[in-house]
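A common beginner's mistake is to predict each chain separately and then try to dock the pieces by hand. The better habit, illustrated here, is to supply every component at once so that their relative placement is modeled jointly.
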Amino acid sequence: MSAPSAAAAAMVLLALTGATAVSAGPQGAAPARSGRDAAPIDLTGYWVSYVTENWRYRMVTPAKGEYRRIPASPAALPLINSWDPAADERVGSQCKSFGAGAIMSVPGRFHITWQDADTLRIDTDAGTQTRLFHFPAGATRAAAAAPSWQGVSTATWERANGPDGGGSLRVVTSNLRAGYLRKNGVPYSERATVTEHFDIAPLADGGRLLLVTTIVEDPVYLTGPYIVSPHFKSEPDGSKWDPTPCSSTW
Amino acid sequence: MLINLVGGEASPARAAGASMRRRCAAALFRLPRSAGGRAAIAVVLVVLTAGQAWAQFDFTGSWAPLATEDVQNDSVPVDYLGLALTDEARVRALSYDESQKSMIERQCAGWGAAYMVLGPFGLRVTSQTDPVTNRVVSITIGAWEDWNEMVIWMDGRPRPSEHALHTQAGFTSGRWEGGALAARTTHVKAGFIRKTGVPLTDQATIDWRFFRHGDVLTVLMVATDPVYLVEPEIVSKGFRLSRTPLDYRAECVTGYEGREPGDSVPHFPPDQNPFADEFVNLYHLPREAVLGFPETLYPEYRKKIRNTYVPPPACTESCGVAGNFVLRR
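With all components supplied together, the output reads:
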């Protein structure tokens, strides 16, 4: 092969590789990369809730018995109408509205870090909760855990099918303790599954926006998926971090 | 050429990619005109052109709205929850009387681009293709009775002059970026960001992102306005792929609704709006939140009102999923 032809072949390979690698996904090559190394987007940092939607259901505790916009099943209605926050406090269940089914809609600050190469961690100042997203290798280790407010979460990157890179994080959470979708006792059961998609968008002021499309499915207390998409602004540091414990009344 | 349709700076990654493509192209022009060389050129050209209009998901089809989030905020005349308004915007909004829509010349005025996510309807999405190049020229989100269609130009055409005609729909161009369709709307007519009369100027810009995850589409709207918004109005609304084609087109027909031609425009003195405290009283909400003060959008505000907020009495009517609208008494 002549020098120009070799150069052309190299260029072709380079162009092909550059244009298609993102669609091949992290599983394409021989050695599996860690969740951190395979990340097509950077979710780490401090984020603050920007409550422009569902304000009345998130910033204050709605009236007892109100469950507008939640597809609650008939089985949920007795629980909704008998909600007793004091009773929840007495039995140590004041974190029921801070579980994985609702935590991203609770106004607060969120600190996202890599706990290790295959575990993405989210700490919340509201309710001082910790979520751990296990990429495939770590997920196996955590599978036997007991039900908890944040359950067991497995994470996968979904890479963009294009030359610009990017993508999104998909997280599936189960093994949950029964909790509340809203502060006023609209329930989800231990059989609920939470699927979340984490996306990033730039803001005109140079900041970033985190969008979390959250899909809660529950064969017991929901007649269909409950889908919300809270969003968050990036913050430069943790100077506004203000941890507060769970409360069943606020 | 690196296409940057929405007016922002090209990202470093895009710039690097373009630089690499330029180097590839330059090397190819030095190749002998052999069959192998021509084949290489063909392959590289395919790769290069594909990178500029790479649809990252199929957006066309019908998308039904999900009613699980409160984004309309139009059940009571004064509901500015979730907005960061300037004082001027608040005054203008409080002077608005919904009876304006009864005036025959305003009945079919419709709503601006933002109504795509603020309204109750789904999306009917089509794409238009250049018959010669077979490339997507535009993506169109179909009209409703009171909302004009949105054409998202994908062909890299320049944005019109700032002095060009402003319309309810505005001018929108888009590109695929990071797995999403990103678009920007400018050239909107002065109108409203909420049906309750919260105004938006013709200087407003709306940035859109369309994210698809399986059968769920999340549309993110970031509206900025140097006059009426202290901070962007950000709304993300979910839709679900519909197997049944959706079509909300309907002719707007004007009719007599109690206002004679030549009547004055219904309005309130801003400090005498009779509905100013309706939402406040109905749900025991803080007045500054209902009136769209910026501090109410952040977690600190929740802590601030913790000791003063008194929940309303237990819900007894229209409490559930079917009661998506606020119950007015």
